[in-house]
Amino acid sequence: MNAGSDILTAGVKMVASMGVVLTLIAVMLYGIRKLTRQRMGGGSGKSIRVLENHYLGVKKSICLVGVPGKVLVLGVTGDRISLLDTLDETSISDRLPENTPPSFGPMFAERLKRFGRGRMGKDDR
């Protein structure tokens, strides 16, 4: 029985140690994510927007990027970004669709918030 309890104790220690390591990794990832959002200006008032993106081939695309007052036409490859043309924002804004669907990231975050609020409301009862 002594050998069996030693194996059980070693197994519990191993699982606990793995839990501590995974928790530390999760905390570090959360901290890094928070830090990069602060440094990159994760606020909602972004002045640079990708208006459209058209893929031409593997790692090749043409992008319309809106900056205050101008729209840049960029050629993007795997190792380079080239300015192809500069357009006035007023001339291109008529042709771009106003109601573009939201990207997956913000939509998923909003759903998670709603799910969390729903769970919090059920637990409070």
What do these coordinates show?
- The protein has 3 helices and 4 strands.
- Helices cover 51% and strands 26% of the residues.
- Strands 1-2-3-4 form a 4-stranded antiparallel sheet.
- The chain has 2 domains: 1-43; 49-124, no CATH class.
- The radius of gyration is 25 Å and the shape is elongated.
- A hairpin with a 2-residue loop joins strand 2 (60-67) and strand 3.
- The two termini are 48 Å apart.
- The protein has helices spanning 2-39, 89-93, 104-124, and strands at 49-57, 60-67, 70-76, 81-88.
- With 125 residues, the chain is an alpha+beta fold.
- Belongs to the FliO/MopB family.
- Keywords: Bacterial flagellum, Cell membrane, Membrane, Transmembrane, Transmembrane helix.
- It holds the Pfam family FliO.
Quick overview:
Helix content is 51%, strand content 26%. It has 125 residues and is α+β, with helices and mostly antiparallel strands.
List keywords for this structure.
about 120 residues; elongated; alpha+beta; 3 helices; four-stranded antiparallel β-sheet
- Spatial order of the strands in the main sheet? 1-2-3-4
Number of beta strands: 4
- Look at the structure and give the mean pLDDT: 80
Cα-atom radius of gyration: 25 Å
How would you spell out the order of helices and strands?
HEEEEHH
The termini sit apart by 48 Å
Assembly of the depicted chains: single chain
The number of helices is 3
Portion of residues in helices?
40-55%
User: What can be said about the biggest beta sheet?
Assistant: 4 strands, antiparallel
Which residues sit in consecutive blocks of at least 5 with pLDDT less than 50?
none
Principal-axis shape = elongated
The fraction of residues in strands falls at 25-35%
Structural class: alpha+beta
Number of individual domains = 2
GO biological process, one term: bacterial-type flagellum organization
Subcellular location: Cell membrane; Bacterial flagellum basal body
InterPro entries: Flagellar_biosynth_FliO (IPR022781), FliO/MopB (IPR052205)
Protein name: Flagellar protein
